[in-house]
Amino acid sequence: MAYFPMYIDLEGKKVIVVGGGKAALRKINSLLYFGAKIAVIAPKVCDDIKAIKGINVHESNVALDILQNADIVVAATRRPEINAKIGTYCNDRGIMVNVADNKELSSFLFPGVIVRGDLVVGVTTGGNSQAVSKQIRNMIDRMLPEEYEALTRKMGAYTELANVNIKSTALREEALDELVKVALSNKCVLDDKKANKVLDKYYREDAARRNA
Ligand SMILES: C[C@@]1(CC(=O)O)C2=NC(=C\c3[nH]c(c(CCC(=O)O)c3CC(=O)O)Cc3[nH]c(c(CC(=O)O)c3CCC(=O)O)/C=C3\N/C(=C\2)[C@@H](CCC(=O)O)[C@]3(C)CC(=O)O)/[C@H]1CCC(=O)O
Ligand SMILES: NC(=O)c1ccc[n+]([C@@H]2O[C@H](COP(=O)([O-])OP(=O)(O)OC[C@H]3O[C@@H](n4cnc5c(N)ncnc54)[C@H](O)[C@@H]3O)[C@@H](O)[C@H]2O)c1
């Protein structure tokens, strides 16, 4: 069965990463970007991880019990049997866990990610091929100019305005779709004057329908 893409607020969530090598490094960077609080535990943690600011590094073996304190656990040691133990421990206790070398024991996978501010696209092949994920990520990355960040933010504000001022759901949807079209016809930049003109048109139409 294909995997469901669920977007999670990681701000302040406690993540324990067991393992301190290449795989751990990539996952740490990914999680850190989205605001997680990270502790890394491994007998030997690589210098690239030690150089990351704002994470806790413990160079020791892991005691499974400590994982109870985590919201999310990543098992990325070189030892498959230890990764599996961590996976099983977490699954038995309902703790979200990614096991770098064991999809079956993972309750979530890491997607390829394209970020434009709050606009986030995640790509997964359900563990079939990270090489395919990487290709698709690169394709989408080229397709999305950085202007989408500002457009997303602006559309957030215009959506709030429309929610207050346009009572008809159908009209509101039409208005917001039109705003996006206006932006796309202008290299993804939404001109506020044009946007307000469009919204005014829909405010009037909405009022007219209510008074009819
Ligand atoms: C998307 C991305 C996110 C991320 O992790 O950053 C990602 N791997 C990335 C990069 C990457 N991965 C690997 C290298 C080689 C260099 C290296 O070893 O470091 C590189 C670097 C590169 O290619 O540039 C090796 C590798 N990866 C996995 C295995 C095991 C296996 O295949 O069985 C092995 C072989 C290990 C071995 O040989 O022993 C497994 C997984 N990798 C996943 C995601 C999940 C499935 C995603 C899906 O199904 O689509 C899954 C199942 C695990 C998970 O969820 O953790 C990121 C995409 C790149 C991008 O977007 O730029
Ligand atoms: N999912 C992915 O994206 C991905 C990518 C590469 C590798 N992998 C898998 O991840 C695992 C790690 O790969 P890597 O390239 O990071 O290896 P690595 O050799 O760079 O790092 C291994 C880490 O495991 C730690 N370790 C070893 N014994 C440990 C123990 N008893 N307890 C805690 N930590 C211990 C080491 O200290 C080291 O920090 C492998 O199983 C590999 O197949 C997954």
Automatic annotation (TrEMBL):
GO biological process: siroheme biosynthetic process
Pfam families (alphabetical): NAD_binding_7
Enzyme class at the top of the EC tree: oxidoreductase
InterPro entries: Met8-like, NAD(P)-bd_dom_sf, Sirohaem_synthase_N
Coiled-coil regions, chain positions: none
Claim: DNA damage is one of the keywords in the record: no
GO molecular function, one term: precorrin-2 dehydrogenase activity
EC assignment: 1.3.1.76
SUPFAM superfamilies: NAD(P)-binding Rossmann-fold domains (SSF51735), Siroheme synthase middle domains-like (SSF75615)
Pathway: Porphyrin-containing compound metabolism; siroheme biosynthesis; sirohydrochlorin from precorrin-2: step 1/1
NCBIfam families tied to this protein: cysG_Nterm
Official protein name in the record: precorrin-2 dehydrogenase
Species this protein is from: Coprococcus eutactus
